[in-house]
Amino acid sequence: MLTGKQKRFLRSKAHSLQPIFQVGKGGVNENMIKQIGEALEVRELIKVSILQNCEEDRDTVAAELSKGARAELVQIIGNTIVLYKESRENKQITLP
């Protein structure tokens, strides 16, 4: 589990990132979770945007993605989710 201080640190890091995944009408699926897991292994911190045609609410999508990819949910801002997962091979972010 992340502490408040760590979440603040990750939020500041995520500020300049662009969303690299979009959840749309199809919602969350296995393939998307697999790809997000792989992206987290490379980048550690990613943003996912939820499109307006997505039928699930953002909290449900965030919970499904973080659980499926075994990642920490850093924050939800508007329709953007920030996820963090410590990388095994490409460790770039050192948490406070």
Automatic annotation (TrEMBL):
Residues 1-96 form the CRM domain. Pfam families: CRS1_YhbY. SMART domains: CRS1_YhbY. SUPFAM superfamilies: YhbY-like (SSF75471). The keyword Acetylation does not apply. InterPro entries: RNA-binding_CRM, RNA-binding_domain, RNA-binding_YhbY, YhbY-like_sf. Keywords: RNA-binding. One of its GO terms (molecular function) is RNA binding. Gene3D superfamilies: YhbY-like. NCBIfam families: RNA_bind_YhbY. This is Ribosome assembly RNA-binding protein YhbY. It comes from Pradoshia eiseniae.
